[in-house]
Amino acid sequence: MSTTLVIIPTYNEVENLPLIVGRVLDATPEVDVLVVDDNSPDGTGEKADELANAHPEVHVLHRGGKEGLLAAYRAGFRWGLEREYEVICQMDADGSHAPEELELLLDEIAAGADLVIGSRYVEGGEVKNWPQRRLLLSKFGNRYIALSLGEDVLDMTAGYRAMRREVLEGIDLDALSSKGYIFQAELAYRAINAGFDVREVPVTFEDRKLGKSKLDASFAAASLTEVTKWGVADKASKIAEMAKQMSGLARYEYDYSGLPKLGQRISEVPEAVVNMVSEFSKLAKHEMQNSRLFGNRR
């Protein structure tokens, strides 16, 4: 049995599925494939069963209905962990993630990485056939996420990934946010905070040629608002702790000085800092909800 599993979630991908599975098996014949289908009305699930019957490397997980990408991946992750796969990969069914580049991610895993992201925005990465508005939205969103969370990863929302099983075992999958597609960023964020080695490799992302995209701009506001909350909460905690330490130092100085009321003012610093950051969070959320970028929903 292979030690590497490629999870491909599907919903109405009957045209794309045979193409992407064929490309995966041609490019990396040493991997297994798990198709996670959410009871697609177009017959994708039946097509997946046909592929599984023809290829022993292909497996199918049928789910009762469409519950979102996170739910599909969560089910796929658990399926793979239960069967002792060492490396678990994510790949879209629509061809936007080139199976021919999967070896780039797996090579980095072999070199010691715990989580590898196929990145559109590192040097050498590329996006093809995307409308300018969608490209700008994606780039802006990823820059905002990096700034909010203080991380160096340039493509936190990318869905082309390879990771060691230990990453998934070390993260509470049930706690991942279901808002928009932000779970991709949250998974990477939690992995970094847990001390895992997270790396990016350049890939070429090409927009789908067949079928209809399930993604529209409406997901962005919910996703970025969620990121704002994480970043503010994290920074508020750090700032409050720093203010607390400064308070202790100032109290020490106060004990040896006669400055009136300084102690009372110092004790108010942590609360004031947290309140300030909280107000910034509300302002950021208001700006996102009322900006043209996020107000233009399809």
Automatic annotation (TrEMBL):
Catalytic activity: a di-trans,poly-cis-dolichyl phosphate + GDP-alpha-D-mannose = a di-trans,poly-cis-dolichyl beta-D-mannosyl phosphate + GDP
GO cellular component term of the entry, any: membrane
EC number: 2.4.1.83
Any single Pfam family the record assigns to this protein: Glycos_transf_2
Keywords linked to the UniProt accession: Glycosyltransferase, Transferase
GO BP terms in the entry: glycolipid biosynthetic process
InterPro entries found in the cross-reference section: DPM1-like (IPR039528), Glyco_trans_2-like (IPR001173), Nucleotide-diphossugar_trans (IPR029044)
GO molecular function, one term: dolichyl-phosphate beta-D-mannosyltransferase activity
Top-level lineage group: Bacteria
Keyword Metal-binding applies: no
Domain Glycosyltransferase 2-like as annotated: residue spans: 6-169
Assigned protein family: Belongs to the glycosyltransferase 2 family.
Annotated protein name in UniProt: dolichyl-phosphate beta-D-mannosyltransferase
Organism: Corynebacterium glaucum
